[in-house]
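INPUT
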Amino acid sequence: MSTTSQKHRDFVAEPMGDKPVTALSGIGEVLGKKLEEQGFDKAFVVLGQFLLLRKDRELFTEWLKDTSGANARQAASCSQCLTEWCDAFL
Amino acid sequence: MAEFLEDPSVLTKEKLKSELLANDVPLPSGEHKKDVYVQLYLKNLTVQNKRKAPPADTFSSDEEITPVLSNRSRSGKKATKKTDKVRKEEVDVFSLTDEDLKVQLLKYGINPGPIVASTRKLYEKRLQKLLDQPPSETTPPEPETAVPETVTLKADGNQNGNTNSVEDQYSDKEEVAEPEPVPIASKPVRSRGKTPVTTRTSSRHRSKLVEETTQQADSVDGRDVLKDLFPNEPSTPTGIIATCRRPIHGAAGRPVRPMDLWPEESLFQQSVYTTTKSSFTDSRSAPPPVRPPARRSFSIWLKLLVFLTLVGSLFYIFQNVTPEQVNSCRVFVQDNVVNPLLSAMGVVDQEESAGSK
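OUTPUT
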């Protein structure tokens, strides 16, 4: 297995349903709050943004950094998490 | 020597002012309508433009041609309104419409998603970055798409001793060829967005012609080789082919299929399951078995042990229950089970059983 966290594995294991945005890998309380302020209160909304960017990991990483103030590691983690989720369920 | 526009109204007011200042044209004090600056521009600068072009008497023929052609080559084309307009629009990324922004990005080989409120800023930034790169390399971005015009440009360029056009021609082909093999081999959009930029920068840094010919050759060969490797792949307009990845069981926390792991043990497992409690084993297999296989075999041994114990105890019972023990057991059972039943019927039976005892 690659260096994925438990949170990552938990998220990618099943359809996200109505999970909150803090369920995403790399998104903790602080970032979650910032995203919620922007209107991204659920994980599927962030997924929506990811899909709008045509699942481009770079663009999404950039967007996440701009929107929530995430650092490169967190954004990359979230990006990878969503990519894998899409590979599995989309 | 700067070239001046025929139609300066395509520039923004700020741009006009800066152009005027750069050419020592006195600006009227305070803020004026754009038209004022346009007029000033036309009066002072476009006139200069005309002044530079015609003189044939004083300059020799070579010199006459050179300034005109150098103007053309620098602007990238014959100085038509449209191309100048396009060129200036590229510089001002933020004033582009969504549609134009998309068109510009497509020129760089990026296939953008819908340009919506939330995505616009990102694409603007990206385009800005791409625009900032080429001007430092003194090559306008248009030659990418305008292949026939680069041919005419080449002639001009050679006269000037300008090898940029040659590079562009090669980089044209690189751009066309490279994005196709790369996505087919690996992931699509991301790498595709990267390759045009990286090939351009890499070609700049290496020695020009030799590297580019090899690159071009490689890309062309690469395309053919890949076509041979994947003859069944359908050709898509963008060259991107994406296949849905089947979920890998055992990765990312997905439950492992027992069949995949232990083919010879699975049969053995089933025999164990039938004899021992099946519900117990089901509950064990349901949660994602992240545990390594060593523990799995350990649990199997454990179940086997339990099974053997049960069998052994049954065997012992059957062997050791000799006749006298059977009788005593029978009496014991009779006393406890039969008597209560019979006591309800009458006192006679009780007396009988007491006597026989």
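end of record. The radius of gyration of chain B is 44 Å.
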